[in-house]
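FAQ: What does the model actually see?

It sees only this:
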Amino acid sequence: MRNFHVSMIACVLSVTTFLAGCGSNPSSTGTTSGAGSTSAPAASQTEAASQPVEIDFWYSLGGRNGELIQGLVSKFNDSHPHIKVNASYQGDYYENHSKVLAAVAANNQPDVTMVEVGSIGAFADAKVLEDLGPYANGAESKYIPGLLGNSYWNDKLYAIPFNRSTPLLYVNRDMLKEAGLDPNGPKTWEELRQFANTLTKKDGDKTATYGFSTPIDIWFYEALVFQSGGLVVTDDGKLGINTPEGKAPLQFWTEMIKEGSMKAPPGEKYNAWDVAKQDFINQQVAMIFTSTGDLRGLNESAPFEVGTAFMPANKSYGAPTGGANLVILAKSPEEEKKAAWEFVSWMTDTAQTVPFSLESGYMPVTTEAVESAEMKAAYEKEPNFQVAVKQLEYASPRPTVPGYKELQEVIMTEIQRAVLGQASIDEALQNAADKGEKLLKK
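And it is asked to produce this:
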């Protein structure tokens, strides 16, 4: 949901030249001795000038993907002696967001951080983010257009695509083949329902294997609304969920749950994602929705052939883009901002996004990367890795209105109530609409 060569190189070179001017000056290292000597102050000034510019980077990916980020940071520090990046993991997107806002209020914020794409508008509107347009100077054109939708606020560039994703349908191809189903997976909602019913297995009164599972999460709900021809937030900034298109996903999910073919994994937020993925690995669920960023991990953990597919279509295919962008904090000093831009542009350039994509499953973020021989060879060897890039044809950015950071929490709470049977679909969406309109008017 979320869519920069010569101009970028010029920008990086200009930053490098600026920072190189802070390096040591051999002519200032004289060693005059005796009373009144100025050698100590000169040495002190030279030492200070030769120190690298230090910047703090907060990131939100743990486990293997967090290790990949730490490896990239180490490589940057080794190749950029004039800058030192101090990287630290701050928890998932929700936790990092809260910490960043608290740090800004306390005036001890990082210089660079990851921000989940749906929150870019809220952070930019709150004047937390630096306008990156003057730094990029047109170099943003190297990024995949479909990933830049959540990079702008009020026509200004505030964020650069980094670990970007779309939701995908993951299938246990072994199970599908055994059941006589197309191992490439279902193409429509109705096919998903039929596949799920066929793949569900009972052990007495208990379900041993569910055909399908998805976290009842705002991201997947957005996808199904798009597939139904609707918008969560309309182009004129109004909430669009209390509509036939907004109701369709909940009707679909609740009907499958009643049929016994779909499991709504327990847990809050990303805990539910972890349950769904573990159920899939343990072959207790045959098909799940999760991020393309989970591809490498599932491939390595699953004792069966993993397949990926577009999210099935209702009226059409559709998916929100997701993941996080890199941003620079507006309160940072100028010198740190310039160093931060050099770091951000390097982290998201082709030479870094290709291996990061191949090792994690997140999409490469530059057009050059997608067209590179290395990525084409990887796609030919492992076609699963290309599915998310192809699905971008049908992808849309997440809503960028400032109130959406809070609004998505309201919507998620209400759709979960509906799916759990704690409220009717109409009651849940009306409640979300009533609360949501107030947030959108802030």
